[in-house]
Amino acid sequence: MCASTHCLQTGHNISMSYCTKAFGTPYIQRLACGYSKQSQRAIDELQRTVVEVESKYKTELGRVRKKYDQQFTDYESQIDIMSRSNGELSRANKALAARVKVSALLILLI
Fold first, then answer.
1. Please, which residues have CB within 8 angstroms of residue 33's CB and are 6 or more apart in sequence?
2. Model pTM?
């Protein structure tokens, strides 16, 4: 996609050529407004660096997200196991309390 605009400093027309690189980031390939080739190379290098860093951090974000999703799933399963165990222990506690009550009545009767 090409676009033209005016330079704010010189008033000259600027012709910009864009291409979409990774992640849809516009990458300015060429500027024609008195910028030196060295300046353009510096801009190109900075944009390549931006794309590389963005790619690196998106990859890292995906890795971390996957790690935390797995931990979340593990914690959910542990909660289920603990809830079942808690229910079983609660039933056992009630049974023991009933046995203690019966034993206390038998002791009183003797």
1. 7, 9, 10, 12, 14
2. 0.49
Helix residue spans in the chain (DSSP H): 37-109
Q: Which residue has the higher pLDDT, 91 or 28?
A: 91
CA diameter of the chain: 111
- DSSP, collapsed to helix, strand or coil, labels residue 1 as coil
Task: Using CB atoms within 10 Å of the CB of residue 14, give its burial: 0 to 12 exposed, 13 to 18 middle, 19+ buried.
Answer: middle
How far is it, in rounded angstroms, from Cα 107 to Cα 98?
14
DSSP state of 33: S
CA 79: distance to chain centroid?
A: 24
Tell me the C-alpha distance between 41 and 29, whole Å: 10
The C-alpha atoms of residue 55 and residue 43 are separated, in whole angstroms, by 18
Q: How many CA atoms lie within 13 A of 100 on its CB side?
A: 6
Question: Which DSSP symbol is given to 6?
Answer: E
